Amino acid sequence: MNVQCKLCFHRCVLDEGQAGLCRARANRGGKIVPLNYGRLTALALDPIEKKPLNRFHPGSVILSVGSFGCNLRCPFCQNAEIAGAGAEIPTRAYSPEALVREAVRLRCRGNLGVAYTYNEPLVGYEYVRDCAGLVHKAGMANVLVTNGTIAEGPWRALLGLLDAVNIDLKGFTDGWYRRLGGDLEMVKRSISLAASACHVEVTTLIVPGENDSEEEMRALSGWLASLSPEIPLHVSRFFPRHHMAGRAPTPVETVYRLAAVAREKLLYVYTGNC
What we know:
- The protein is α/β, with parallel strands linked by helices.
- It has a single domain (about 35-270), classed as Aldolase class I (TIM Barrel), CATH 3.20.20.70.
- It is built from eight helices and 14 strands.
- The strands form four sheets. Strands 6-7-9-10-11-12-13-14 form an eight-stranded mixed beta sheet. A two-stranded antiparallel sheet has the order 1-2. Strands 3-4 form a two-stranded antiparallel sheet.
- Helix 4 (about 150-160) links the parallel strand 10 (about 140-145) and strand 11.
- It is globular.
- The chain starts with a strand and ends with a strand.
């Protein structure tokens, strides 16, 4: 029988054995199961600023893990090899218990905890949830780097286990989000809920000709400031990748100009990839 996945707004209705748009969740025996549970494609000890998080334990490092799958289809994806992959991709098995043991082992190197990142970690929601609980029991921190495309119920349930999040706000128009296969209002809700639950920073990748107007940045930064002017915003430079490999990089001057616009409303604005 078919079954509906309710993790995000796509609400995929799946036949037996079928995987959803994210390629990481499938119908197995009438239940939605995460195909990427405990399957890692990446494991590294990264500077916290790489997430990017500039105002959460600056100067520290964090064990960063990724799997496969994503519920958006961004044509500029920097990690398309894993974000666009399914269960066929080679992975390394790591149970939640094994991951936490590794995180604890790396304490001697300054490890802060675990960051769920690289692909879209929320399509592996159950693994993030199970790991995060154990990470907290070990007295360490949980960091999530996400596109924020998740239903309200599971997001609220997870927020109590998170210490910091960086959420991609990929622009501030419904049209741009539709081209990415996303939903702007869902992401705004995710940011709003997170802002009252844990440390939040936001990243916007500036793609020339798509989301690079001062008007859009003024609307985006003004909305963030309405939540709190202390939410850090990372204004990041686009480089040609994936289906946009033929595009020119964002001019550095554009990034600096839009960061200056954002500073009209926000206290902490950073530029990236410049």
